[in-house]
Design goal:
Length: 939
């Protein structure tokens, strides 16, 4: 039986038993903070099991994409371990229980209409105390007692060992079904979990029966296919073996089951399949959480290829094989194949660029450990390898294990925390968490949202939550206005709870004798939670309220949200269909939009994108929304973001004929209501992901005005036409560099020094687009934000003026060179001593002059001084090498001189620098210098 055939048969079978076929959840469930990747089929049904949502069905079946890394070291080594795999499941939410679950499992496995496995090849296990399940297997199914094995809680309970070790919460016994081949070990192919208890505290009597019992079963697709096809490992099944063979071909090896190369090819197959699905969902390799998992998997596969002799990227060549193998179940993979391959290739290239140096460093570490008789790899060393060479610690640990060395994970974690770069660890699925809002979920299930039609509505207070977790609690009434963060749940609400990137509404809840200020609105499951502070009176559960949204702020949010859809369209038009949303946040007339793009967006592209947005805004296109079946929305061409799980039916937002997106946010009714749109910044946020920050409405209009004002201000500062600002600033910066060079080299102001550039550009005022382009150019030159340009131009202009003045003063003071200073030198015995003031010279120039004199005179001592303003003196002293041998010491010489100026300092025997605060005492200090060097040389 083929893989695609088994997947379809399983789902069809349970549909005949009244189950609703539910699509796989996304691989990265952003709605669930307890996991990085979907670890099991039940994950998307957690709230169903806990009764937190209103059920449209009580029976479900699915084939879920899963990713786990807990057993990553076994991938490729054992017959059945994967990181990415598919889990077939059937679920009951307070409907059928053990009898039906067991009988249906047996029917599907043994009936010739379905799988037709011989009953003689199957046996089962049950939990030690689960007499009910054992009896069903024995009496209903007819299994001999010898083929029903009772096991302890560590094997046949979910979560494992829950009765004795916890955690508290929903749990239950399970029953596993094993297949026995003619040769080799038996294989677990199905696990039936009976969630029937709530664990409360330690034993005994800590398992309390649940009022509603549930079924959660799982059958590993790849493992069962391997069983039916009679192949030695999951990697030899019909849809994985072609990838394995392709991996062997790309790596230039012949595939064989029990060889090191064979194991590496299987691991490469698993990892490239996992990463293809993850990158397809816009999870790119990175430093933290799920992105780090992808990076780790890719680099582990690259290491396998490297150890097979490859030195160039190769994994990306396997993406088409993965797409082809999974095409029937996941045809959407084909839409992103090129992008996925590009991302993988880029990460490969990055790692191949450092892997040889990293492996050489690891070999040296192992050699040092052997010579020192150490057996544990130090965490700080592993952190250095990751930061310097990009070697994930898991790879380092695996290599260490091959040398029988252990790994200091605690030390690694501490070292990475110092550098602020701890990688995310995959967490486990958690169920049964309790809190005051959970009680409201059980009672209300959801809060109807009225905000699409109105911003003001009558409602009733259903719950008041006071305090912070874990001390938060429900209360019947509240009259204490000191609580800054109270949560209120209503029976219905026009307030939008933060979701889909749109921030929550603010406003007021007004009752007969109270007022509650809403400072934020969040969602908890399907509940809308109003967060804020009681500002007047007493609020009670059951009170009638008028819920009033801040309409001005809501309108600004609507402008920004509708603008993201317009921007999304423009990005795809100018950058390509790959430029899909990776995340967004919309606030009042402000938006942040993350999208997929491997390179920065050029200024020309930003200009074209902005121009397109402006045209669509000015085009006054109608904005409308409707709720319709998901299949119909797809048929109509609605954009489906990869990695998003959509409900069915869905809400589709359309703008004219150019945009159709599935979105639950609030929007305008016409694109012209955006009013204005301005891009503020474009920057990278991670590998392959760019970010645009933009403004809409009044904020955009004001920003455009500020841009024009900034150009005008900067141009007035340096007295040039606004259209010529970029050329004049470029000239100003060049002048700044020239003058600094002259000042530090001892030069003087050129006789033909002028400011500004000759230009025939008129004084015409630039339009908005021109002003923005000009300011963007100048901001880049100055390495500042656009609106900071005037201040920076003024600072540079002022510095240029100061530099000119210093050079003018220097010219008035006469020539400054080693020769001119030696002309005023005195002799102390056979030593040439220079003690002099060098007007406008900085410390760098004084050091140069000292070096030049020491090169000219073998026995020399030089101390130079320069003043700046009324409160600063800089001193630099130098002693020639031969004079140091006689006891000369620049640091000892300069110290009393600095003290005479109200300062301090010192330094090495050859060169020392110090400072003072009283320039008026400089003549006196220089006399101290002359006396000090005489006494020093007399010793």
């Amino acid at each position: 039986m083929k893989t695609d055939e088994l997947r379809e048969k399983y789902l069809a079978f349970f549909e005949t038993k009244g189950h609703t076929r539910v699509a796989s959840d996304v691989l990265v469930p952003t709605w669930d903070p307890s996991v990085l990747f979907t670890p099991a089929g039940m994950n998307q049904f957690k709230d169903h099991f806990l009764g937190k949502v209103k059920l449209d069905y009580t029976r479900a079946t699915s084939c879920q994409k899963c990713l786990r890394t807990g057993d990553i070291d076994n991938v490729g080594r054992t017959a059945y371990h994967h990181t990415f795999f598919e889990m077939l499941g059937n679920f009951s939410f307070g409907d059928y229980f053990k009898r039906d679950a067991i009988n249906w499992a047996w029917e599907f496995l043994t009936d010739k209409k379905w799988l037709g496995i011989s009953p003689e090849r199957l046996s089962v296990t049950v939990y030690l105390d689960d007499d009910e399940a054992a009896e069903i297997w024995s009496k209903d199914v007819g299994l001999a007692v010898a083929r029903i094995e009772r096991l302890e809680e560590d094997e046949n309970f979910w979560p494992a060992s829950a009765p004795s070790q916890g955690p508290d919460g929903v749990c239950g016994p399970c029953s596993e079904i094993y297949f026995h081949p003619d040769q080799g070990k038996s294989v677990e192919i199905w696990n039936l979990v009976f969630t029937q208890f709530n664990r409360v505290g330690d034993p005994p009597d800590n398992l309390r029966p649940l009022p509603s019992k549930n079924i959660d079963t799982g059958m590993g697709l790849e493992r069962t296919v391997a069983t039916l096809q009679g192949v030695p490992t999951n990697y030899h099944i019909d849809n994985l073996m072609p990838i394995v063979q392709a991996a062997a071909e790309v790596c230039g090896v012949k595939y064989a089951l029990d060889t090191d190369a064979g194991r590496r090819c299987r691991r490469i197959t698993d990892h490239v399949r996992a990463c293809t699905f993850a990158v397809h969902e816009n999870v790119y390799p990175g430093a933290n959480k799920e992105k780090y998992v992808v990076k780790r998997l890719l680099r582990r596969a690259v290491l396998d290829g490297h150890q097979l002799g490859l030195r160039e990227p190769f994994l990306h060549k396997l993406v088409p094989e993965v797409v082809e193998a999974m095409r029937n179940a996941y045809p959407e993979l084909a839409e992103t194949a090129d992008r996925v391959a590009g991302v993988i290739q880029q990460e490969e290239a990055n790692f191949f660029g450092t892997i040889d140096a990293g492996l050489n460093r690891i070999d040296r570490v192992f050699d040092e450990m052997r010579s020192d008789n150490r057996v544990k790899v130090e965490g700080e060393v592993a952190a250095e390898l990751y930061q310097t060479y990009g070697v994930p610690p898991e790879l380092f640990e695996a290599l260490a294990a091959e040398h029988n060395l252990t790994f200091d994970w605690d030390g690694y974690t501490r070292a990475m925390e110092v550098h602020g770069e701890a990688s995310g660890k995959v967490q486990h699925t958690v169920m049964g968490a309790k809190g005051p809002l959970d009680s409201l979920k059980h009672a209300l299930h959801s809060t109807p949202f009225l905000g699409y039609e109105t911003t003001e509505a009558e409602a009733v207070v259903k719950g008041i939550v006071v305090g912070e977790a874990p001390e938060d609690h429900l209360c019947d009434e509240l009259n204490d206005q000191s609580h800054k963060s109270v949560r209120v749940v209503l029976d219905q609400s026009p307030f939008y709870g933060e979701s889909g990137g749109q921030v929550g509404d603010t406003g007021r809840l007004v009752g007969e004798d109270f007022e509650f200020t809403v400072t934020d609105t969040q969602k908890d499951g399907h509940l809308i939670v109003h967060i804020g502070q009681l500002t007047k009176g007493i609020i009670r559960e059951g009170d009638a309220v008028q819920a009033v949204v801040d309409t001005e702020r809501r309108q600004g949010i609507r402008r920004a949200h509708s603008a993201t859809h317009i921007l999304h369209h423009a990005l795809q038009k100018h950058l390509g269909s790959h430029a899909q949303q990776q995340g967004s946040k919309v606030d009042c007339d402000w938006l942040r939009f993350d999208f997929t793009n491997l390179s920065p967006v050029t200024a020309e592209q930003i200009g074209a994108i902005t121009q397109d947005v402006h045209k669509l805004v000015e085009g006054a296109e109608q904005v409308k929304w409707e709720t319709l079946p998901l299949a119909e929305a797809r048929k109509l061409g609605a954009m489906m973001l990869f990695g998003e799980k959509y409900p069915d039916p869905v809400r589709m937002v359309s703008m004219g004929s150019f945009s159709k997106e599935l979105c639950g946010g609030t929007h305008l009714t016409n694109t012209s209501e955006v009013e204005a749109f301005e891009v503020v910044t474009e920057e990278g946020v991670s590998a392959g992901t760019r970010r645009i920050v933009a403004l809409t409405g009044p904020q955009a209009i004001r920003y455009s005005e500020q841009i024009s004002e900034a150009v005008q201000s900067a141009a007035e500062t340096i007295d040039c036409p606004q259209l010529a600002l970029a050329e004049n600033v470029s000239d100003l910066l060049e002048k700044q560099r020239e003058l600094k060079k002259l000042l530090t080299s001892g030069g003087t102001l050129p006789s033909r020094d002028a400011s500004g550039v000759a230009t025939n550009i008129s004084d015409e005022i630039p339009n908005s687009a021109q002003a923005k382009e000009i300011l963007t150019q100048v901001a880049k030159m100055l390495s500042v934000t656009p609106l900071a340009v005037p201040e920076r131009v003024a600072a540079v202009n002022e510095e240029v003026a100061v530099l000119r003045e210093k050079l003018t003063q220097r010219a008035a003071a006469g020539p400054m060179s080693a020769d001119s200073l030696l002309e005023v030198a005195t002799d102390v015995g056979d030593v040439r001593v220079v003690v002099a003031e060098v007007p406008t010279a900085d410390a760098n120039l004084m050091r140069q002059l000292i070096d030049q004199i020491r090169q000219k005179v073998v026995l020399s001592a030089i101390l130079l001084a320069s003043t700046e303003g009324d409160d600063k003196v800089t001193l630099v002293a130098g002693i020639s090498k031969d004079l140091q041998a006689r006891g000369g010491h620049a640091g000892n010489w300069i110290k009393p001189v600095a003290q005479a100026l109200g300062g301090g300092g010192g330094g090495r025997p050859d060169l020392a620098q110090a400072g003072g605060k009283e320039p008026s005492r400089l003549p006196e200090a220089l006399e101290v210098a002359r006396q000090k060097i005489v006494s020093m040389l007399d010793k």
